[in-house]
Specification:
This protein is α+β, with helices and mostly antiparallel strands and about 450 residues long. The protein has ten helices and 23 strands. Strands 3-2-4-1-5-6-8-7 form an eight-stranded mixed sheet, with helices on both faces. Strands 9-10-16-13-12-17 form a six-stranded antiparallel barrel. A six-stranded antiparallel barrel has the order 18-21-20-19-22-23.
Length: about 450
């Protein structure tokens, strides 16, 4: 008996590239996305960014405080497909062989938790660090760069407002970035992209060691053609990697929930592995009691279009044939019925403390980000040493404070409370806390 499909015909299975757009407030992130996706230059007052904002205060201040998405398409010949020629996202997707999905993240320090969540739940293939050419590397720029590298997301840099910065100021910004990228702890190779030859060199750099740097203007259009060429060259996975992931049992991580009248509860998320098909029966959970329940997928949408199937690496929205009232929450998953999943309160992880003003002892509470999971966790035990300072590494036992979660060994972890932050990797999960303390 076939438990999940290996091959499903779908002539609209276009490639999806997710790009997290990061950088300090006023760097011009939303304006740049607006120019790339709308196909029209900015007027110098931020008109290109208005369509990306989701809240009234964002329009008023010009600062992003939430996570928004916008797409840019490319056809088989590499021609861009944007809103200048097509009315909506559905038409762009229909005409595109590749979709670049920009994830616009907040640049202000007070919205750092939103930015961290955006990078962890959307699993971007690349991070586009946007730097204001007139002010340089300031504010949260270093934090965003460090976050991307900590989560092993390949980075490329775009310096905006190149038309407003003097040649001297622009060169100072470039040199500052190059020193930062070469510094201890990062050790990357910066590459200034100034012509089509360097675009091709940057596009072939798939190991993440080379960091391409572009200088552009959203008003004059300077440098935008080179940036678009580079975006067209980006690839999420090799064909072999993608094929391998599609052969695995389906796994869908829920990161957004919308309740619509006459439709029901729409679950937005990411297909981590396998294939999701319309009508397939899956397990949904874990609920607050740690249990999973059976449900059937009644419809699937991707970029607002109906699909019969979505594949590993695709972001999508699904509707289940069962109504779980308010029991569905972000951080839950859809899994193959044969998976026999277990939720847990307790897990251990190897961590590195990036910053903490004093010492981390057992009892320390922090917000933990693991994929689509975001929850307060308590440090129950630290294996030798018994407390941690900046740059210390150790195996730590955590306990989720509110409800059990579905996590897996090998998952990347990021924790943050106030100015305290660190990274790590989940090593073990257990039903009994003492089992982890003994290891």
């Amino acid at each position: 008996m076939i438990l999940f499909p290996l091959k499903i015909p779908d002539d609209r299975n276009c490639i999806e590239i997710r790009v997290a757009v990061m950088g300090n407030v006023d760097a011009g992130k939303s304006t740049l996305i607006g120019v790339l996706t709308q196909g029209s230059l900015d007027d110098g007052s931020g008109a290109a960014r208005v369509n990306l904002f989701r809240h009234a205060h964002e329009i008023k201040t010009g600062n992003t405080s939430s996570i928004s998405n916008e797409i840019l398409g490319f056809d088989q010949e590499g021609n861009e497909i944007n809103y200048r020629s097509y009315i909506n996202a559905e038409e762009i997707c229909m005409k595109s062989a590749k979709i670049v999905k920009f994830i616009d993240l907040a640049g202000h320090e007070k919205y750092m938790h939103t930015t961290i969540r955006g990078v962890t739940i959307y699993a971007p293939h690349y991070a586009m660090l946007v730097v204001n050419g007139t002010t340089g590397v300031v504010g949260t720029t270093r934090d965003h760069l460090g976050l991307a590298f900590a989560l092993e997301v390949p980075v490329f840099v775009v310096i905006t407002k190149a038309d407003l910065a003097s040649p001297h100021t622009l060169n100072e910004t470039l040199e500052h970035l190059e020193r930062l990228l070469k510094s201890f702890g990062i050790r990357k190779v910066p590459l200034r992209v100034e012509d089509e030859d360097t675009v091709m060199t940057a596009g072939r750099a798939v190991d993440g060691q080379i960091v391409p740097i572009f200088a552009v203007s959203s008003v004059s259009g300077y440098g935008l053609d080179l940036l678009k060429q580079y975006l067209h060259l980006l690839s999420p996975l090799t064909a072999r990697e993608r094929e391998k992931m599609m052969q695995e049992p389906p796994e869908f991580h829920i990161y957004e929930i919308v309740r619509l009248p006459k439709v029901g509860t729409v679950l937005g998320g990411l297909v981590r592995r396998g294939v999701l098909t319309e009508g397939s029966e899956l397990l949904v959970g874990p609920f607050v009691d740690g249990e999973f329940q059976r449900a059937r997928i009644s419809s699937i949408h991707r970029n607002k279009q109906p699909y019969r199937a979505v594949y590993a690496g695709h972001s999508a929205s699904v509707v289940l044939d069962m109504e779980f009232d308010d029991l569905i929450r972000k951080g839950m998953v859809l899994l193959c019925p044969m998976a026999k999943p277990e939720a847990t309160f307790h897990f251990s992880a190897t961590i590195c403390v990036l910053y903490h003003s004093t010492e981390i002892h057992p009892g320390f509470e922090t917000t933990v980000y693991i994929g689509n999971v975001q929850q307060t966790a308590v440090v129950e035990h630290i294996h030798n040493p018994s407390f941690l300072h900046i740059d210390d590494r150790a195996s730590v036992v955590y306990r989720f404070k509110q409800y059990p979660e579905y996590i897996q060994p090998g998952s990347r972890l990021f924790f943050r409370t106030g100015n305290s932050k660190g990274i790590g990797k989940v090593t073990r999960i257990a039903k009994v806390l003492e089992d982890l303390k003994l290891k």
